[in-house]
Amino acid sequence: MENHNRAAVVGISALAFFATLVPAGARAQAKPSPDAEIVARVNNDVITLSAYQKAEQQLRDEAARDCQGCPQDQIDAQFKEQQKDLLRGMIDQSLMVQRAKDMGVSVESDLTKRLDEVRQQNGLATIADLQKGVEASGLSWEDYKTTIRNGLLQKEIVRREVGSHLDISADEVKQYYAAHPQEFTLPERVVLSEISLSTDGKSPEELAAVRNKAEGLRTSVLNGDNFNQVASLYSEGSTAKNGGGLGTFKKGELAPQLEAIVFQMSKGEISEVIQTRTGFEILKVEDHLQAGLQPLEKVEPDIRNILHAQKMQPLIRDYLAELREQSYIILKPGYTDSALLSGANVPSPDKSHL
């Protein structure tokens, strides 16, 4: 994958920009005012100086986040390296969104889902609350939705126009697996579920009652009750909604007290009642995975994703080159589209003034 692709505001990873309530990328998509200065024309669309400057600021912010504690000259160097492809990325976005509209692609249902995901990520009760938050940041709600919609349109165009033609053979998967064993060699791990009862603020008498309750729950599970159902009904931890599922842990990721217990247990085994600083725990080892090279059948989906990403990038660039050849792109003097082929779409002097 090209290192420069981070600079493409609208690359395949563009959806990641919307993980926060008002992503910086959204601001780069605000509709230009009629008298806004234009940096580039892409067929009937324009890229304004304001949009370009905001996208530049986003790159600066990303460079600072990616290199926290680095000297300023190092951050500046990283920014300049990414800046070279900034306008290319913005033109890529415009071309793919135009192509999607020409094909009649609709992503409105996906847009609704994505907005709801953002709402949940920010702990908001309703979409109306999300809208208020967006507008309070100084961005219009319609511009915000347009930014997300454009990202979804690009993703769908890449899937239809590029990804549908990409094939990964079983031999390619086997070859990658054989050549990269270190990527699929994992440490010993345990997959855990819990039933958790809190003792926060409890008196000694109440503490004893909580322990008795925990012992009773453990007995019911040992007698055949489903652990995850019991966790859903009686566990007081945040994992109750997931049936007590805690996740997968390797050594060093758990409290020493718990690690010493669970790594001695086998798959399906249930711990004694464990008293911790905050309560009582009953742990179930859902799986105990030994260290070593994972079998090919288990990691094949991961390998296919890796190979897919490796193959997609050059194909996307080839696809965008074709779109450029079919398009009318004019740049303001002083700005460069790094994807321009020699002699292709180069504006003549009498057309370059915007």
In short:
The chain has helices at residues 24-27, 49-66, 72-83, 86-102, 108-121, 127-136, 141-161, 170-179, 204-222, 227-234, 256-262, 296-325; strands at residues 38-42, 45-48, 185-186, 189-198, 245-250, 274-275, 279-289, 292-293, 329-331. It has 354 residues and is an alpha+beta fold.
Primary descriptors:
disordered C terminus; 3-stranded antiparallel β-sheet; 354 residues; 2 domains; alpha+beta; 4-stranded antiparallel β-sheet
Residue-averaged pLDDT: 86
Taken as a percent bin, the fraction of beta residues is 5-15%
Q: Please count the beta strands (DSSP E, at least 2 residues each).
A: 9
Strand-pairing-aware structural class = alpha+beta
What would CATH call the homologous superfamily of the largest domain? Porin chaperone SurA, peptide-binding domain
Topology as H/E string?
HEEHHHHHHHEEHHEHEEEHE
Q: How are strands sequenced across the largest beta sheet?
A: 5-4-7-6
* Named CATH topology of the largest domain: Triger factor/SurA peptide-binding fold
Q: Write down the CATH class of the largest domain.
A: Mainly Alpha
The helix count comes to 12
Largest sheet: 4 strands, antiparallel
CATH architect. name of the largest domain: Orthogonal Bundle
Radius of gyration, in Å, reads 27 Å
Morphology:
elongated
